[in-house]
Design a protein that fits this description.
This protein is an alpha/beta fold. The protein has two helices and twelve strands. The strands form three sheets. It has a five-stranded mixed sheet, with helices on both faces. A four-stranded mixed sheet has the order 1-8-9-2, with no helix packed on it. The chain has a three-stranded antiparallel sheet with strand order 5-4-11, with no helix packed on it. The two termini are 28 Å apart. The model has no long low-confidence stretch (mean pLDDT 95).
Length: 156
């Protein structure tokens, strides 16, 4: 499935769906970030995805990291909430989602790094190397908020 992400674009289609999603900034003991190159957009992103009816939000982040990367993580905190109505995601089936993402802090606790059908590649990335990755501005915002070491989560 291919998707197109829009941000503050007057040509973007109108949203017709709202999906609660969770993502995670996963770090290793060297301070690097776990990034995935998404199969549906080709862009680099944090692992994450939609919440299921049987999930908690932190559980969604843990499950999605496992499904997309093969790694086990532990949630350690909250980066922020991301609900900007200017960010919409269009799918070929006509669904146009408005962003609703809660981004968590997480640490690696086990597993084996494995590319899933949702990813083209997985990579541990040093903070200094993030600018070289092609990613949506909302992903950069989440990483920026994480790197700022905020005392309180971003609420937006």
């Amino acid at each position: 499935m291919t998707r197109t992400e829009y941000y503050d674009d007057p040509q973007a289609p109108q949203p017709n769906s709202l999906v609660v999603a969770a993502s995670a900034v996963v770090t290793d003991d060297q301070g690097r970030f776990l990034m995935q190159r998404r199969a549906d957009s080709g862009l680099w992103a944090l692992p994450g995805g939609g919440m299921e009816l049987s999930d908690t939000l932190p559980g969604t982040a843990v499950r999605e990291v496992k499904e997309e990367t093969g790694l086990d993580v532990e949630i350690t905190g909250l980066v922020g909430t991301y609900t900007d109505p200017r960010h919409v995601i269009a799918y070929p089936d006509g669904e146009v989602r408005r962003q609703f993402n809660v981004c968590f802090r997480a640490r690696l606790v086990g597993g084996t790094l494995t590319v899933s059908d949702e990813s083209l590649a997985l990579r541990w990335v040093a903070p200094a190397d993030l600018d070289a990755l092609e990613m949506h501005p909302t992903q950069r915002l989440r990483l920026s908020h994480f790197l700022e070491g905020r005392d309180a989560p971003y609420l937006g």
